[in-house]
Amino acid sequence: MRDTDFDWTKEDFLEGIAPYEEVYQIEDPFRRQQTLASMASYARGIGVQGFLQIYKNFEKAIRNPRRAEDISNATEFEGQPMELDSGRWTADDTGVYQEGAYGERLYACNHPVMPVERLVNLDTGEEKLRLAYRKGGGPWRTLIADKRTLASASKVTELAGSGIAVTSDNARHFIRYLFEVETLNYDRIPERRSVGRLGYLPGAGFCPYVPELVFDGDAAFQQLFRAVTARGTMEGWREAAQWARRMSVTAKVMLAASFASPLLEPLGALPFFVHLWGVDSGTGKTVALMLAASVWGDPSVGRYVKTFDSTVVGCEKTAAFLNHLPLCLDELQLSKDGRGRQNFDVYRLAEGVGRTRGNRSGGVDHTPTWRNTILTTGESPLTGEGAGAGAVNRVIDIECAAGDPAVPEGCGGWLSGLVREHYGHAGKAFVTRLYGEEGALAQVKSRYDAHFQRLSKRDTTEKQAMAAAAILTADELACQWVFQGEEKPMTEEEIGRFLASRRAVSAGQRGYEYIMEWLAANKSRFVLTSDTAELWGDLERDRVYILSSKLREALEGAGYSYRAVLSWLDSAGKLMSRGGDNKSRKDISKRINGIVTRCVCLKLEE
């Protein structure tokens, strides 16, 4: 409807209800919203201000026939957000109180406070209350408190930290006041849906893009929740992203991995890492990470992009909060301990499930879960030489050298500045098509399966092929949905150069290669001569006997599991044994320097 289609007068808006009834009677929500916007514009044109607010009050009056006259004892706070029935409590600017048995005042609170909103969490069904309060004539403030806190005299005093005057002396009265007022005004207090995390919400949509959804989660994640927003224009962001894609395959992979994050849930895939590393400065690792983060929100370090300077629990909680959005961590070297050893465990995040932890009440806390991509940077690889096959399997390691940077030298400042001005549009457009377009999820599964089948035929593992297939699928969809067909999708050859081979992933194979290097470096320890200071075994033409204690010391010192490596060597036919009943033993008896001892006998290749 156009503004010119209306013929209402100013008096019709201010003295009657006909214009508001016309809008209210439209059943189709989309048409009603269109008519509401047009009528608001028309009303402003004839001098009627605040039409939308008047309509909201009209709608409330229609839906809730209870009038203010029905309230026997109303709250009388100055500038109060709403008027509520306070029951037997006096609620005015001096506070909230009731008369005691001897005429004394029993205060629930010595300043205005009232429940103004009931929040129901979509994930857990848990109810919380939003409280509005004012102190000393200042502005009204609000906070969200869960019902368990508001029902316990020992816990409700925690609200004092937010400025509400509740102590152990008035806690019981405070709890009773809120309970009675909420009960009396159940129909008056509005109820809204809430959520404590980001990502897909079954039956609701993709947070934070669900209208009228309230965040009721941990206050520590308020900043990160607000960082997932849009600024600038899609065209400005697209210009930066297309330039980076054409300059570097690494930037293309990082962007695609960011888009791949919301695909893992519908695909049923596990989280995986894409890690950029390099000892050279100026290779654009952090800028590429910021580019990937700008798909969803403010890519500034400290806003959406976090660092490795966090505890294990902190990383788990952040991953669970992001849930289906990528976790971006910068500067791996910040995870090193006081001895310079890397203190980060890939398994902690790659499984997508946090630790089950007990609580003070004797039960267990909610176990956090997530299913997203984890994008990281650092000066060294994410996994060490002795890392297990499972850890290596979950990481796509990309080295950024001076000759092959993620972002060309000299361009990082320009690109980072551009994505700090334009961000957050692409992610919203991507998930809107993913969950809003008919047949999109089936298309995702079909493309993913095709890529996975072809990648599985390469010299790589199944988990590496799964991660690569998700990245390729996301890149194809981004080229179609976000870049509007102006970009060519990444090829399997481009992503294939970064995938680990089966040999590189195998911890047993890597352990065997380490033993060979260790033997070559210490050959003199296996040949008894007059100059031999310490003998570690015996070297023969086609085999070598190694003292079990020395081999264990060497392997575990390099980060390998002694038992796991020996088990692999045995299954690979590289160990010599004399048989016997005890099949679990991988070592044998051997006389070394005149003494019978336990040794590992390793076959030597020709």
Could you outline the blueprint of secondary structure elements for this entry?
Layout (H helix, E strand, L loop, with lengths): L9 H6 L2 H7 L4 H17 L5 H13 L26 E3 L2 E5 L5 E5 L3 E9 L5 E7 L7 E6 H4 L20 H14 L6 E5 L3 E3 L3 E3 L6 E2 L6 H6 L6 H14 L1 H12 L3 H4 L4 E6 L7 H9 L12 E2 L4 H11 L4 E4 L15 H5 L22 E6 L10 H5 L1 E5 L12 H10 L3 H12 L3 H17 L5 H20 L10 H5 L5 H4 L1 H15 L15 E3 L3 E5 H10 L4 H10 L3 E2 L11 E5 L2 E9 L3
Parallel strand pairs: 4-7, 7-10, 11-14, 11-15, 12-13, 13-14
Antiparallel strand pairs: 1-2, 2-3, 4-5, 5-6, 8-9, 16-17, 17-20, 18-20, 19-20
What are the main properties of this structure?
606 residues, alpha/beta, five-stranded parallel beta sheet, 23 helices, elongated
